[in-house]
Amino acid sequence: MMHHLTTGLPVIAQHAPAAREFMFASPHWLWLLLLLIPLLLLRRRKGTAAAVQHPGVRIIAELLPRPSTIAGSIGPVLAVLATAAIITALARPQWKTHHEEPIASGIDIMIACDLSGSMAERDMVINNRRVDRLVAAKHVIEEFIKNRPNDRMGMVAFAGKAKLCSPLTMDHNIVRRRLRDFYLAEVNPFGELIRPGYIIEDGTAIGSAIASAATRLNENKDTKSKIIILVTDGMSNRGQITPIEAAQNAATLGIRIYPIAIGKDRRLSRNVARVDTLDEKTLKEIAKLTGGTYYLAGSSESLEEAFRSIDLLEKTDSAPRKYEVYDELFYWPMGAAAILLVLAALGMLIYPRSAP
Is the pTM of this model over 0.70? Predict the structure, then answer.
């Protein structure tokens, strides 16, 4: 199989319907087929008599079995057909398939998702069902991934520390599987831990999450655009690096950060033990330092709107790529020629030509 590419760009978005046509790569060989026509016309032309007929043996000769002439009838035909098949193979028959595909210069996207204990707050609604913040975030993030087939995606989870869950990849099924694995710690009504969460250490290490995501994005130097989508509902209180320091480092690497504050700020809540502390000032500063945009998502609708806005802001450039694929078919006439020659040889052996 041969491929002829007319253009070349980094990522193929999806296949377009292909047009197919039959052709010969070396059609000049087909002129030799004209030489076979005289051979077919002259193959059984009678020549002069080989012996003098004697009137006394005619009657006896008619009563005796006559020698078979199948070799003389079929053998030359098979040989001529085999020669025609060989000539056809030399002409190189092919299927030529025309393809046109949109080529996308994709964007590298790392998603950092908060798995701290406050993400268990059930103040979101998905499909008329009240769910916690993590369930809502997972639902919206998965839809976002589905709508970005031409971009490399990666995933970082964080609570008291950051954990790389999926490196940048075009296989979005891997990223979505890792996202579905996220879960929070379970506690009983008395506040006792039943099961630790996906990230055992509780807390909110926003700086570590940004640093981890930026490190992965910096591994590929050739990507046109690199972004981090930071989904969190709290104030950074863990990690070796502050969110502002991590954002400054990301900015020097040309990485934009889109912070999304999920949930409602309940600092005035009567239940002081479950106070949420959205640090909007820091999240806004992170967006400003890196050229991103800050979003406040107090509901599942506003969370979906935030991801739709990012989807519109970070568009993937695409251009059509045209190319042809040639499927060689010469082995079919060559195989037919081999079979015809074998049949012709067998015919000669089984039904030999009679002597004159």
Answer: no
